[in-house]
Amino acid sequence: MPPKQRDRKGQPVKTKRIFIHGLESTSRGTKGAFFRKNYPDMILEDYDGPLSKRMDQLNETLRHETGLILVGSSYGGLMAAIYACAHEQRVKRLILLAPALNLPEFEPCLERRSPLQIPVILRHGRHDDVVPPKAVHEIAAAIFSNLDYRLVEDDHSLHRTFDGMNWDDLLR
Predict the structure, then answer these.
(1) I need a labelling partner for 22 at 20 to 30 A (CA). Which of 32, 58, 78, 92 fits?
(2) DSSP H helical segments within 87-144, as ranges?
(3) What is the tally of helices (H) and strands (E) in the chain?
(4) DSSP characters for 26-57?
(5) pLDDT tens track for 60-71
């Protein structure tokens, strides 16, 4: 069993879980509804507007948080990955669902001197026609040193495979 994460004063860090929805979705979409029902302590917010506004809101929400497990879907995966690049010490695990890492907004993360060390679970649909799986896999492999990447038989929404993921383990 891995050691408990501790803060600067040596106190155990309580895990905080957050779901970040995609560009044209809300926290009340299919995935948000799943998390709201099954993980009522999970932080679920709605984001809109340009990326800078969304990131300001995310940074404000998480400004005092540590021990984070970030779940990001599509554009929300881009947001989660950007947050992790800037605040790696606050993030316990990153779970990315068909993340839009191929967008130019992610390029500053690629300029890091060293890859992120945190565990990253990435699931991407083989038949995704919104975010290209091959390009995202190449980007993710370059920036995340502890990457668990799986290409699944699904499309961009991952609705066929999402419910079958072992969320209890992933969010622990």
Answers:
(1) 92
(2) 107-110, 133-143
(3) 7, 6
(4) -TTSHHHHHHHHH-TTSEE----SSHHHHHHH
(5) 999 999 999 999
